Amino acid sequence: MLCFTHLSPLPLFSFSRRQLTSFSFRTSLSSSSIDSVSPPPENCIVLGCGGIAVDFLATVDSYPQPDDKIRSTCLKVRGGGNAGNALTCASRLGLNARLISKVANDSQGKGILEELESDGVDTSFLVVSKDGNTPFTYIIVDKQTKTRTCIHTPGDPPMVPTDLPQSSMLSALDRANIVYFDVRLHETALVIAKEASRKKIPILVDAEKKRDGLDDLLQLADYVVCTAKFPQAWTEESSTPGALVSMLLRLPKLKFVIVTLGEEGCLMLERAPKDASESKETDVESLLETLKHRTDSTTTFPTCVLSETTKLKANGIGTVSGRLFLGTAEKIPPEELVDTTGAGDAFIGAVLYAICTGMPPEKMLPFAAQVAACKCRALGARTGLPHRTDRRLIPFLV
């Protein structure tokens, strides 16, 4: 769930105002109009490889106990899967989205293709098996706790690299501005990632949790977006800021890493293009605490606070030159919060758009948080995904 959390306005550490910058993008409908939104970017292509599925979403008053028999209050069947969701989001925002994945030649697979195509996602590179089953997920949405529980059944037979002819892969990569992987279909993903890297096409990896093939993909990644628990789990460091420093040290190609923090927003560490050798070292833990106390607790809109480029030190780990960003998320009224399924995918779809269009990080993080918040106001991973003409996005797209 993405929403705003209260933070004390009093700083605990002595960093000058010059070292910190704050950005807020308020969705003022009176000062902005749809007519002022910039046209969609021309020929911006994002290629994604990963999971698609059918989601069976059952809303219940409260999550069942073992051996309970309960009734759902609402049932909807929608398209899902991380890659399918993120690319649908990117397409609605104005990118040309292409997807590599696999479905079966069954009613669910046909439904997935139709839904993706209706949202402008290019499905010509999808593999359709004659037999087997399309992936599907049972999702239980708890109205009381505003949480969701997912039970996934993978597709069969699984996708393997030989399913995708070399000519199809090269066509999919042709003129692509960025390639995105959700780390499912990892064998196929690695073949595509190596070719993308050879062609110098930027790569974004969604590091949701440790998976087969993840480490190989991370070595090729230019950008990583990960869940709250991932940095510490992958690096075995004791804190998130220290783990982010460790990730940049271990992955020399990485330009930035974003960790989504649920209702606390997100944290991003960006590598400086040049070494900040003249800057004095700054403890990354202390800097994060200062950023937290510089956020604006009076606004419900997404905001971003960032440091200047400096040498960020993590004790016992090392030092990297870069900037630390702290993004907040929208404070969604409880009566408007419906379902958090796919919020992270929406965030990634917006990040893909931001990278392709050259949006600066201090604008990208609130933008991605706003897109995710829009999604959370409807049931299912895609129902609430906004189009670029959505009034709530106008301040970011003018």
From TrEMBL:
Family: Belongs to the carbohydrate kinase PfkB family.
Protein name: Carbohydrate kinase PfkB domain-containing protein
Source species taxonomy: Eukaryota, Viridiplantae, Streptophyta, Embryophyta, Tracheophyta
Carbohydrate kinase PfkB domain boundaries: 52-270, 329-387
InterPro entries noted in UniProt: Carboh/pur_kinase_PfkB_CS, Ketohexokinase-related, PfkB_dom, Ribo/fructo_kinase, Ribokinase-like
GO molecular function: kinase activity
Alphabetical keyword list: Kinase, Transferase
Species: Arabis alpina (Alpine rock-cress)
